[in-house]
Amino acid sequence: MSPRLARTGWSLLAWSLILLVAGPLLWMVATSLKSEDEVFSLEPTLLPVEPTLEHYAVLLTETAFPAYFANSVVIATATTTVVVVLAVLGAFSLARFRYRGREAIASAVLLCYMLPSVVLIIPLYLLMVRLGLANTIASLVIAYTSFALPYALWLLRTFMAAVPVEIEQAALIDGASRMGAFFDVLLPQVLPGIISTALFTFILAWNEFLFALVLVNADDVRPLTTGVMTMLVSGFNIEWSLLMAASVMMSVPLIIILAFLQGHLVRGFGAGAVKG
Amino acid sequence: MRPALHHLGDRSLGPLLIAPVVLVLGTVIAYPLFAAIALSAFAVDTPTLRSRFVGLGNYAELLGADGRFWPALGVTLVWTAATLALQIVIGVAMALLLNRDLWLRSLARSLVLFPYFVSTVVAVLVWRWLFNDMFGLANQLLMKIGVIAAPLDWLGTMPSALLSVIVVGAWKFFPFVVIAVLARLQTIPESLYDAARLDGAGAWSRFRDVTLPQIGEVLGIVVLLRAIWDFKEFDLVYLLTGGGPVDATRTLPLIVYQEAFGLNRMGMAAAYAVAMMITMLGFFLLYRLAVRGRT
Amino acid sequence: MVDVRQGRQDSVAMTGKPTTGENGAPLLNRRCLLGSALALPMLALPMAACSGNDDRKVLRWWSPQAAPAQARAYRAQIAGFEAANPGYRVVFEPTSDEGYPAQFAAAFAAGQVPNIVTHLPSFAAQSYYAQGLLEPMDGVAATIGAARFLPGANAPYRAADGRLSAVAIGGTAVDMLWLRRDLMAAAGIDTPPRDWDALRDACRRMQTKRIYGAPLPYGSNSMTSLVFISFIHRAGGQVFTPDLQLALDSAPTYAALEFYRSMREYCPPSASSYGWSDSLNAFVSGATATGIYGGRVLISAARQNPRMARTLVCVPYPSQTVATPSWTFNDFPCLFIPKGATEIAATKALASSLYEPAGYVRQMLAAPGHVLPVLQGITDSPDYRGNPITSLFATQIATMTRAAAAGHNLGFESPAHRPNTKAGEIIASHAIAEMVQRVVISGESAKAAVARASSRIAAIMRGADVPR
Q1: What are the sequence ranges of the domains in chain B?
Q2: Chains B and C: how many Cβ contacts under 8 Å?
Q3: In this complex, do B187 and C9 lie within 8 Å of one another by their Cβ atoms?
């Protein structure tokens, strides 16, 4: 079998599987472009017969969708920033220093994975109230930090552990300070890891649902997930066509990330994370 | 394992750098966790938070004959094991495929990863719409090609409800396996395969003798992480079936939520959550033992 | 578990020569980056927290009825209130039917309650009031004018202490039987069915390869519980006796279960997971010949299926026999004020302002026929009648208004019943929906399923022993 033929064969197989996997999402896009009576047609068609952008127009002009979108951007960006900064410093500490309690902290972080988040909600909410943060964007940023930080820390710690110490030692011998060596030598080395950590955190914060449902109930701080649900899925009615259009627009940042940073995601993840 | 740098550094710098993490995790995880453990010893009315001490009474009830812990644990284990197995099989196969030279490989990789990144809310709504008996594509396609005569009830009856949840879970989360395995595959030197080819190894034995040992470690970690996450998955199951029919897809996290906010028994919910956490810890220790035993 | 070699290969491959050529400008950039990364959340948080800051005091209004048209009507009412009370700003915040218990739990626990809450079911108000979480509403009712309400409109909110836990804001005849004249004619049916046998027969005759008979819910959700309770009553039964003794295990329950099971073959396959929206869409899209829903059918049909809208017939859902009294589920959308709400005088003024005729009519017309007026004289007013839907469907709306006024729910099973403050929890536990599922889907014996549901409901009733 010639390499050319093999490539064609594998490509055909791969692409048919990919279309199957992406099928539901492609159907979401198709549905969002259908008019309402086409959506509720008893003979569903794969592609819209008369594509329309009306649902997008309604969402953008007549609903709070743009506000929810802005809230989600702020929440996800702030969470990512806080988590990455804390995790980079913390991972540096765990990977490059020896002190009493270090292993205990590392295990405690791992244990944090195992907490079912449902039960943390009420105590966390009461805590937010005590801190005067109830119903603010900050409360969600703090809550999301609590889920994302352990994973980010673990990821970055393995990234840093995989970088040979000798390079930093060389910088220290050249007279760099501990933090100087960290910023100038170690940080560039683990940049792919930082990018992939940041992406995972951003996506987690962008997509979270349960905490957003309980912790905030004011419209001016509500993110997309719960905003879209409360707006379009009342117990009495589901606005399917608007919902599909909202879903497509919610996914735009993720599409951008995947289109431009997919390589980073895969390489970064491989370089450190998974070797725990 | 390697020379540490502690002698080169400021002694207090290490603890100083980890301090913010400890502080944040201490407030947002440790405090609520202890609060939860404390709550589990009380009967607590959710909206008023009025409470009465019951000691281990909640645990006695949930583990007892009328309690729902054991059946729910069974459902949770079936869901976790089945969806995890599917994720691993599909994920590894897809990673192998995507590691080849393909047309538009970068686009292909992005599309495969997409389900993992799309919001669970979105994913579930799309699937519910696909499964819709009247306007959904799933039934229409299957009826058109003659597999079924009448629309199937995907989410409302057993065993299809549990099966659907498992399949949607596998679809949503297998890309995580793809990312991890693909990353590792890219670092396997081609020379290993060349050597195996020279020895006359076929495709299967190349996979078994070269690829599998190389990705074994990665798979171990992926299994651990995904097992933890699948075990405590809430959004996907809750939004897809809400736990029905009856309790057939009600996993432990859904019970916790129902006890806390449906039945207003916050203390009982906390007891279920603590029991669930202890179970996870048990499995985690078993895993550690198994890993240690092997190496 | 750490594979150092691999990491080395990767990191070197990624960054080229890491130790040289990394001084000067790039270094500065990195520091700037980190610095701005630190500063960004510090900036973002206060900015987000302070957005939209002005001197006016804020009043918060929650409602699960927040379709775009309804939200517009509320905004108009809010604008009127704000113009008359310049010191206040009203923020409308949608909540959801499934999500509100969790949100209220958190809000009450934290003392961060909204000022007014509208359109929650009467049993939610009764349950929160019994827990001491709500303000009595007698004063607000008096300000609005007790005589302006339709007779009995506020009866479902009368609490055990004789005060009002809430005031009515609307009524909804939730489970009407909807039919289509065209399909009835095609099947040779002249009049709407008036008992169960006739209903089942009509569904059988109207069912075709493409159209099912009825969209009854069999899901483990609140719709199934609420609708099935109506069926128990339509067989002449009740869930509780007037003094709240559990009466589920009785002949009418078994008759209702038997009928409900016999209807399964006339319902679409995924009726086993149907909730309100699925049931509504099934009928409005033409997938079922009959519907079971409130006035939202009119709005959805007018929009999605105008041809069918002209053929709609609406009657109270039939009882077991013509002799059994009719029973309609009304969840009695209400207005209440949580205890601890800030600015109580302004809050009460806001509450009564929602009943000023012009705004009230507009609010009713935002979901015409679905939320029905509870004030005297609205249905006959020219403003109300001028709406295309209320004028086109005047007969159907009149039927629903009568049914809603005579309606009941689990918190208020009959005028003789004591208010059941545990109704919300019984519905949320899905005990009744699960009883239906056990019998219809899992094929368990009705006796066992009823016994199981009874013991769960009894446990919920007993659950009140947390000290006050």
Answers
A1: 69-249
A2: 132
A3: yes
